[in-house]
């Protein structure tokens, strides 16, 4: 009986799935514009951008756009140099362990800053701010709480372009109630068969 309880508890436990976006999953856009909103739907995330976030090939690919940046997890990165200077990620379920890398790029200024906001159920739950280092000197920002929405934006005097790369998170997958009920029936059947066999 203890073995059946152990197996049941393992099967009912949620499984953790890791999400990673390196921007090298697809060919670089190499043109100004918003990041395609549904590009990463298969990971349970939608991007909301107005004029920023398209992907660029990086230094290893001839530096299209003259960003002077090389991504941190592959050469391609998401670039921001439009009027909005940011975007929003909407997750299909709560996520934990969210992190990203960011760096200022060519044309930016010393003292430019970057902000990441974590939101859960429409409420701001965490804010992280950094002052960028040198061009192509990437910083990792990591949220420490569960979120279902992440917003980031850059700030500076005048033109303040920057890049983002290596976005990571963990999401929990919880079994559907019907699956749990079927699993319960299966465990009960095993227990009954075992009891009947030993009698």
TrEMBL record:
Superkingdom, natural source: Bacteria
Keywords: Membrane, Signal, Transmembrane, Transmembrane helix
Domain (Ice-binding protein C-terminal): residue spans on this chain: 173-195
Claim: Zinc is one of the keywords in the record: no
Signal peptide positions on this chain: 1-18
Transmembrane stretches, start-end: 174-193
Keyword field contains Translocase: no
Pfam families for the chain: PEP-CTERM
Protein name in the entry: PEP-CTERM sorting domain-containing protein
Species this chain originates from: Corallincola holothuriorum
